[in-house]
Design goal:
Distance between the termini: 77 Å
CATH architecture of the largest domain: Orthogonal Bundle
Number of helices: 9
CATH class of the largest domain: Mainly Alpha
Oligomer: single chain
Helix content: over 70%
Number of domains: 2
Largest sheet: none
Shape: globular
Strand content: under 5%
Length: 209
């Protein structure tokens, strides 16, 4: 029976690994709760007041210790929320573009997806609140997250297929233009019309033709 026993070193490693796995799962849950709570509190505050750490941890049902275990400051949480939103939007755009039958349709799907952020009142309110709070990120020397870089990356392949001589630069310019146009709608609390969205698409296509 002793021959089948786990050596002390292996047993210790297995126990430690189980504890680390549980801690990782707990920490992942804490971060997600803080991200979701931060977004909810920012949406509730809108563009009239900035949420406090106390507001966010209360909404998440966590403690200040839990907050600062993962984020050195409120600005760091805002930056993480911006990155999280960018990842979600990029995933959505990629999914929509995958349905397209041509590079032109891919560009059209990309524009439709970006501008859809202003087409739904709840999404628009959340996006505007995050954008407004994001204005304070980077003021203390922290790295400012890029909202356009991952979106521009999705346009590089269709732009290259459509004959762009510099698809990387053209995609970046198109992303900045589209996000800037989106920002105007968000701040004016107006939904873009189909004609206006189509105009953005044609602008992007003309820029590389």
């Amino acid at each position: 029976m002793m021959q089948n026993a786990i050596p002390d070193a292996d047993l210790a490693a297995a126990i430690a690994q189980r504890r680390l796995a549980k801690r990782e799962a707990d920490y992942t849950s804490e971060v997600r709760r803080l991200l979701d709570a931060g977004l909810a509190v920012m949406r509730r505050c809108g563009t009239t007041s900035r949420p406090r750490v106390a507001d966010i941890v209360a909404a998440a049902g966590l403690s200040n210790d839990a907050f600062y275990r993962h984020f050195p400051s409120k600005e760091a949480l805002v930056a993480a929320i911006i990155d999280d939103g960018s990842v979600r939007l990029t995933s959505y755009l990629s999914h929509q573009m995958a349905k397209a039958k041509s590079p032109r349709d891919e560009v059209r799907a990309w524009v439709d997806g970006v501008m859809s952020q202003a087409a739904d009142d709840e999404i628009a309110a959340s996006t505007l609140a995050v954008m407004w709070n994001g204005g304070m990120v980077g003021q203390n020397g922290d790295t400012r997250p890029s909202t356009t870089a991952p979106l521009a990356k999705l346009l590089e392949a269709p732009f290259a297929a459509l004959g762009s001589a510099d698809p990387v630069t053209d995609a970046s310019l198109a992303a900045h233009a589209a996000v800037g146009f989106l920002s105007d709608f968000l701040w004016s609390r107006v939904r873009p019309t189909r004609k206006q969205i189509a105009h953005v698409t044609e602008f992007c296509l003309r820029a590389i033709s």
